[in-house]
Amino acid sequence: MCLQNLKTEIENFLWPLAREGVLLGFSGGTDSALLAAILAELSHKLELTLSPILAIANSPLQNPTEIRAAQNLAQQLQIPYKVFELDTLSIEAVKNNHKERCYHCKKSIFETFAAYAKKNGLAHMIDGTNIDDTKVYRPGRRALAELGVVSPFVELGISKQQIRNLSKEMNLCTWQKPATPCLATRFPYNVVLTQPLISMVAEAENWMHSFLPNVLNLRVRCLFKNGIHGKIEVDFHNVPLMNQKLQIIQQEFQRLGFNSVSVDQEGFSSGKMDRT
After folding, report:
1. ∠ at Cα 104 (116, 264), nearest 5°?
2. Confidence label for 269 from pLDDT (cuts 50, 70 and 90)
3. By CB neighbour count within 10 A (0-12 exposed, 13-18 middle, 19+ buried), where does 199 fall?
4. Is this prediction's pTM over 0.70?
5. Reading across the β-sheet that carries 81-85, which strands appear in turn?
6. What was the pLDDT predicted at 276?
7. Which residues contact 276 (CB under 8 A, 6 or more apart)?
8. CA atoms of 32 and 131, how far apart (whole Å)
9. Helix 3-19 crosses helix 30-46 at what angle (to 10 degrees)?
10. What is the distance between the alpha carbons of residues 92 and 117, in angstroms, rounded to a whole number?
11. Burial letters for 227-243: b for 16+ Cβ neighbours within 10 Å, e otherwise?
């Protein structure tokens, strides 16, 4: 399918929903950014009675830099947004990092969104889940289904690569943005999550991105063996660079509170904690 036809297909799907009012769960990532950009175009072109709203969840499990980036992107797209301050660590299953954590977290977030949507006359909630997400472990999708959240990319069978291609065609800055899942994914299941631990991992990843800005896919997994151990995952072709820079990295990580650091020699793999 050519990119123009793909865009038209998405527009045709979104238009009936947007006409009745839409709230989009917005992270500022590649998927939700494309939906937001198309909604913004529809809103300006068709003079919708109810403007779409971008809902940004700000919780302890989000990196503050990502929240700021999402707000900046919403402003660039000239589409209204609201930031919801959420204490997801108050949920026992989330705090204790249970395997179903994502279900409970997502349900809490979208219940908050749903209450706001209802109060403001927005008939539909949508999110950026794509068809590739249905092939991996995503317990949060069950919460979305229970709350009636529509996933346009899933309904249309649209893949991540198609989203990236169309985003590039539309000159969106997010077209090659790496996935940025919540910070709980950096920890083993059944480890109690605390704000200091989460902040330490966020600061470590932020420092890594500033130290090596050309390294896009990057995770700092937080393990617990002889203290707090940071295990760095990058794409396999960047592993030699990490090994070369490890002494400098160790010094910074120790300053942040890690007792030890290593580089995962197998390279980056999304969802690695699900397989440990």
Report:
1. 120
2. confident
3. middle
4. yes
5. 81-85, 53-58, 22-25, 124-126
6. 55
7. 188
8. 14
9. 70
10. 26
11. ebbbbbbbeeebbeebe
